[in-house]
Automatic annotation (TrEMBL):
Pfam families cross-referenced by the UniProt entry: Abhydrolase_1
Region (Disordered): 1-26
Name by which UniProt lists this protein: Alpha/beta-Hydrolases superfamily protein
Superkingdom of origin: Eukaryota
Domain AB hydrolase-1: 99-213
Amino acid sequence: MAAGVSRKISAASARAHTRRPKQGTPFQLPSGMFKKILVVFFMGFMAWAYQAIQPPPPKICGSADGPPVTAPRIKLSDGRHLAYKEHGVPKDKAKYKIVYVHGFDSCRHDAVIATSLSPDIIEDLGVYIVSFDRPGYGESDPNPKRTLKSMALDVEELADQLGLGSKFYVVGFSMGGQYLWTCLKYIPHRLAGATLIAPVVNYWWPGIPANLSKEAHDQQFPSDRWSNRVAHYIPWLTYWWNTQKWFPACSVIAHSPAILSRQDLELLPRLASRKQYEIGANYLHMRIEWPQREGWAGGGDFVLLEARDAVRHAHGASAWVKCNHFDASCASCDSQICLSSKLIFARCETQI
């Protein structure tokens, strides 16, 4: 073959000569490693979630790492302590001996029926009031085994150790109303009288008509409706929900001024100096063999909307309930409490 003759090169051969060499294969995890990483990540997330929903351990007053005890306390039969504070005339001179149960975000110092009444009224009527820190509040020991019945028995034991006699009065304010419900159920024979002031009720009580509960619940702020649902349907998530920052908190916990009525807002400067569970039973069908008792509801109550209407319903459903409704303000307004207190004590002799 002549030296000058050129060879033909096929297109395929040309592409093969000009093709870039293959790059190295990408890094691959060993077989099953990705699943193991996912499992570890999931377990870590679950551990974080579990810690997030657990409340911190309580610091018991009087213990090595707890705050000091400054209040008088009684020791209950199960070893717990209840701190209390006495108001009014001495017990041995009192005509009316009252156990006052405080509400949410309060303590024994917030006995509004004692602090709102003038000393003259207390003296003239002969009123003795003992308020106590509910378990876990103030200087009272927490009760991790708390039940509906244990609430009533705490009140009874407090009254017995303080020598209040065979019968005494109980006043429950706001969230403190849950204690009064239990006293009505478990120790009615010890009660000379019972008063609910702006009580918190359960939107899922079967004894309250469903349309009434739904109407009142729908008038709540969206954040409050969600808080109610969490407490009712997934109670183990309540601590996290009340402390998280991702969603709007319960308006009462957030101290939102939007829940206050006009009268409340006027009183807000006076309250600025203040030092700062769901009930599963239904009580409207109880049969109680004692004279009439009273419920108080304010027309301007924007927080306890259902309580306002439930008092009216209870009056119709149970003959032993007397309904008192007035156009005052809501649970945080101590002008309402002052008015209620004067009327309650003024009517004690005729109603009980």
